[in-house]
Sequence to fold (558 residues):
Amino acid sequence: MDSLSFSGICRHHVLPSTMLDFYSSNHRKDGFFFWNKASFARKQDKKGLTTTRVASPLPVIIPSLEKEIVPDRNHAAWTSVRQERWEGELVVQGEIPLWLKGTYLRNGPGLWHIEDYNFRHLFDGYATLVKLHFENGGLIAGHRQIESEAYKAARKNKKVCFREFSEVPKYENFMAYVGDLAKLFSGASLTDNANTGVVKLGDGRVVCLTETQKGSLIIDPNSLETLGKFEYSDRLGGLIHSAHPIVTEAEFLTLLPDLINPGYLVVRMEPGTNERKVIGRVNCRGGPAPGWVHSFPVTEHYVIVPEMSLRYCAQNLLRAEPTPLYKFEWHPESKAFIHVMCKASGKIAASVEVPLFVTFHFINAYQEEDEDGRVTAIVADCCEHSADTTILDKLRLQNLRSFNSEDVLPDARVGRFTIPLDGSPYGKLESALDPNEHGRGIDMCSINPSYLGKKYRYAYACGAQRPCHFPNTLTKLDFVKKKAKNWHDEGTVPSEPFFVARPGAIEEDDGVVISLISEKNGSGYALLLDGSTFEEIARAKLPYGLPYGLHGCWVPKK
Fold:
């Protein structure tokens, strides 16, 4: 886990003053690159695919005048973003549905180096926010760095200045290390690098998030500008929270792990406020610390609180160099549990032991009822990594950049928990469908949001076509037929498939699936699949490939 230096890594970082050069048919404005919009047409290519809204030729990318670009032999997915910001209208091949009006936002780590120092882990990268704006069959794309304090300090001082996922500041002496530890206890040295998710609150504000509470930043969904911190007005305190809150038009739900008295506060925030109110508390049943809660599911009436055996570790938080499990520690002897809390009363409806599991992402949950309408059980689905913690270390950049066609991706499945509400002490964990349907790899999931917390049939995720070292397909999961449809483009890495329902749709899968695709030759494109047939309906090539991103949200056009 020593600091690593990788050969062949693109080390340039083009600031707004050195944006892309361009042909005379294009123009520059406010540091952005814009296409000339006078040359749009409709035509067919040699394959018979309709091409709409054809823009001017893609620009030639010119190296920074300050530093010559090092040729990059790495996949676009694992390569730092080429410049701080860009925007332009793309050539669309195929047909974008005219009903698709709004902006897809995707957040994720996108800058994995400062000067010549290269970061260790996928989750360390400084946040890159990407947008795809759909309107009238056209597509405008853009990206911009999120201006967290951590990012601005690193850029100014040319070094890491805050504690990231695996990176910590390099201390000049022991007293500097002690001083940083003091800042850690207050949270001052923790990162605000909001590189994990992006959500649209019920009041319209758009917030980028990460595991630290201070890493909640408000952004403008049109310009992608960082507007400022999202300051919680309550006094609940704490340093961390779930990176994946449950957000609807009516509420914002999240979990606040308590590292001192192991447990979780379940809290709610109403639209238009910054105040979180406590619904209830769950006390951990095992281990020296709470289990990691990157995400959690809900049903119509319950909040499901997972307690993994992969637990937060205070000692690892204090280390100057990371361990193989980073900020966590595996405690199989502490067992694993699922807790079910009533949203209305805050009372615990069930707390059961379940088989050991490892998951980053829950997919959905719903209530099972008997013929009289009484809730008898909770069903909760997740992307489950076969209780194998090595998935965390597989996400080191050195591993991601060194794929040699060996099949090294750990197995994963759709893990389905069944939690009885009759007082039974144990719950079940089984596969919701044969993992071979999706290549024994699964993560980065989305559903039709109208089915959040309800019984559902379909989910969309990233699966695997082996051999591989990372999920490399898009997959549509059918939990009724227990089958999967898979999309694959050789050599590419797709990001989270995001489902957008057609306005007025009746069928659960009536809509489109959006994903950004990174290619091994350094290029990339935006992709639209039909939510029902899972066939490609449109794609649009980007001027250069974008780094792999994590999670997104949809901002409909008003």
In short: The radius of gyration is 23 Å.
